Amino acid sequence: MGDVVMTIPVLRCLEKKYPKEKFIFVTRKKFAPFFTEFNNITFFEADFKNRHRGFFGLLRLFKDLKKTKPTKVADLHNVLRTRVLKLLFQLSFHNVVSVDKKRNERKALTRKKNKIFKPLTSVHFNYQEVFNKLGFNIDLTRDHSFPPSKNFNLNTEKIELNDRKIIGIAPFAKYLTKIYPLDLMQKIVGFLDQKHTVFLFGFGKFEMGIIEKWSQAFKNVYSCSSFGGFENEIAIISNLDLMVSMDSANGHIASIYNIPVITMWGLTHPYTGFTTFNSDPENQLCVDREKYPLVPNSIYGNKELTGYEDAMRSISYNEVLARVESNLNR
Q1: Looking only at Cα atoms, what is the longest distance across the chain?
Q2: Angle between helices 182-193 and 205-217 (to 10 degrees)
């Protein structure tokens, strides 16, 4: 999801600079709510569970896309599936450009020996480069503008917003190496509950089990289960005063609506290029690399390291709270 969300600022630039052009964005159905803001960008569902499943499904996807009569093709994923599509379009004499994932630079940044610890180009600008190579003159630093916050509905009258700041917290990530210790996160939630209204975001049985417990234990803390579905969750995020997130999709969602995001990094790192859009470097909280010098050891957090199980405990919860107050008092 994060990869899809990170394309949104680039698409806004395309729509702004080229309002008469028609763009078709191909991805899974569940990501459709991110594209409702656009007028000349059409959402196209890739049904990888049924119609477009497997190799022959990929051929059907190619044929379905051919019917839209594209003149240029941007591969923003550069994985096996999209490489096959790229080849098919090239054989049909289409202009195709794939995103450069800087794989060699990524390996140098994450390897154990002779690590080259320097920041990689932001993924947002890698996406921009694809469209520049296709002939679209866009610049995220000049052309992007944020949309207004979305309208949202809450299905409970118990939530009191009033004069309290609204803070979103997304305490989970796909991999354990990127999740802040839950005992420390509970302390953060409990402290913020005293002065602010806290919305918790998560997905799945385990995550929602923790979230429900916290929302029941604290008066001003609320579970996303009462928000009325994913589209309304996005709308609520767009109205937050602040988001606290792991290196995960919820932080990216908040950032594309100009919400300040405090991101907590485990065995990944901001240097990998996956910082939230227009992010404040001071809001990127990382583990102590003097104690844990092998960080980052992967781009996505899918590799554990022996002896690094408590790496995120080197991020003090008091440091997190200080950053929260600093952002809210601006």
Answers
A1: 62
A2: 40
What domains, with CATH codes, occur in the chain? Answer: 2-143 (3.40.50.2000), 166-328 (3.40.50.2000)
Which letter does DSSP use for residue 142 in this model? Answer: H
Q: Mean pLDDT, consecutive 10-residue segments, the chain of 330 residues?
A: 95 96 95 94 94 95 95 95 95 95 96 96 97 97 93 69 88 96 97 95 94 94 87 92 96 97 97 95 97 96 96 97 94
- The answer to whether 266 and 179 have CB atoms below 8 angstroms apart is yes
Q: pLDDT of 261-312, one tens digit each? A: 999 999 999 999 999 999 999 999 999 999 999 999 999 999 999 999 999 9
Rounded CA separation 270/247 (Å): 9
**Beta-carbon neighbour count of residue 94 at 10 Å?**
14
Spatial distance between the Cα atoms of 93 and 73, rounded to a whole number of angstroms: 11
Contacts of 71 (CB under 8 A, 6+ apart): 94, 95
Partners of 197 in beta bridges = 166
Q: Calculate ∠ Cα 70-44-39, nearest 5°.
A: 80
- Burial (Cβ within 10 Å: 0-12, 13-18, ≥19) of residue 161: exposed
Compute the distance between CA of residue 304 and CA of residue 291 in angstroms, rounded to an integer. 16
Amino acid at 226: S
Confirm if 46 and 26 have CB atoms less than 8 A apart: yes
Sign of CA dihedral 229, 259, 318, 294: positive
Decide: helix, strand or coil at residue 236.
helix
* Cα–Cα distance for residue pair 268/1, rounded to 1 Å: 17
User: Considering the entire predicted model, what is its pTM?
Assistant: 0.94
How far is it, in rounded angstroms, from Cα 47 to Cα 178? 29
**Cα 89 to chain centroid, rounded:** 29
* Alpha carbons 37 and 253: distance in angstroms, whole number: 14
**Dist. CA 223–CA 229, nearest whole Å:** 12
Residue 56 CA to residue 290 CA, distance in Å, equals 50
d(CA 20, CA 39): 10
